[in-house]
């Protein structure tokens, strides 16, 4: 990935950092009481068509955190999806989120997936503006769901 140093590389989230990742997701406000983020994370790591990518700190000047950010990525054979893009509040604005989105895009492109989709809560204007800057646009669709 461009912009990465040898000490800071985007890679698949190690299983021993799942609790750290889910704590970051809680801190970022990405979790909901009806979802189990740890089960989501493990399911993505175990899936053939999904994973969780992370950026970890490098050498001695790194901040005192285990994860600089995460993104869950997967696909259905045609559309890719990203979830749980999270960066610690104190590290936002440094390009980490963009690096993770670009890594998810690359992961999907390597698998021949032509389109990436994501969901953002309508009231979350800060995140919508972030994705606008990365070239994402609102799609003319309605997302429907049902708990099974």
| Approximate helicity band | 25-40%
Overall average pLDDT: 91
- What is the general shape? globular
Q: What order do the strands of the largest sheet run in, or round the barrel if closed? A: 1-2-3-4-5
The radius of gyration computed from the alpha-carbon positions, rounded to a whole number of angstroms, is 15 Å
Total beta strands: 5
Helix/strand/pairing class, anyone? alpha+beta
Give the biggest beta sheet: 5 strands, mixed
Number of helices: 4
**Strand-residue proportion:** 15-25%
Cα distance, first to last residue? 38 Å
The H-and-E topology, N to C, reads as EHHEEEHEH
Unreliable stretches covering 5 or more consecutive residues: none
Overview of this protein structure:
The protein has 148 residues and is of the alpha+beta class. The chain has helices at residues 18-27, 37-46, 96-109, 125-133, and strands spanning 10-12, 50-55, 69-75, 79-86, 115-118. It has a 5-stranded mixed beta sheet, sandwiched between helices. Helix 1 packs across helix 2 (37-46). The chain is globular. The chain starts with 9 loop residues before the first strand and ends in a 15-residue tail after the last helix. The mean pLDDT is 91.
Question: Which tags fit this structure?
Answer:
5-stranded mixed sheet; globular; 5 strands; alpha+beta; 19% strand; 148 residues
């Amino acid at each position: 990935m461009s912009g990465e140093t040898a000490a800071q590389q985007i890679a698949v989230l190690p299983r021993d950092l799942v609790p750290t990742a889910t704590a970051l997701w809680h801190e970022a406000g990405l979790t909901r009481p009806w979802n189990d983020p740890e089960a989501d994370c493990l399911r993505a790591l175990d899936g053939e068509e999904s994973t969780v990518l992370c950026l970890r700190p490098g050498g001695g000047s790194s901040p005192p955190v285990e994860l600089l950010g995460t993104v869950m990525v997967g696909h259905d054979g045609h559309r890719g999806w990203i979830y749980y893009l999270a960066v610690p509040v104190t590290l936002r604005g440094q390009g980490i989120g963009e690096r993770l989105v670009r890594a998810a895009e690359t992961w999907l492109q390597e698998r021949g997936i032509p389109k990436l989709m994501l969901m953002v809560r309508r009231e979350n204007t800060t995140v919508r503006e972030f994705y606008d800057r990365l070239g994402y646009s609102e799609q003319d669709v309605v997302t429907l769901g049902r708990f099974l």
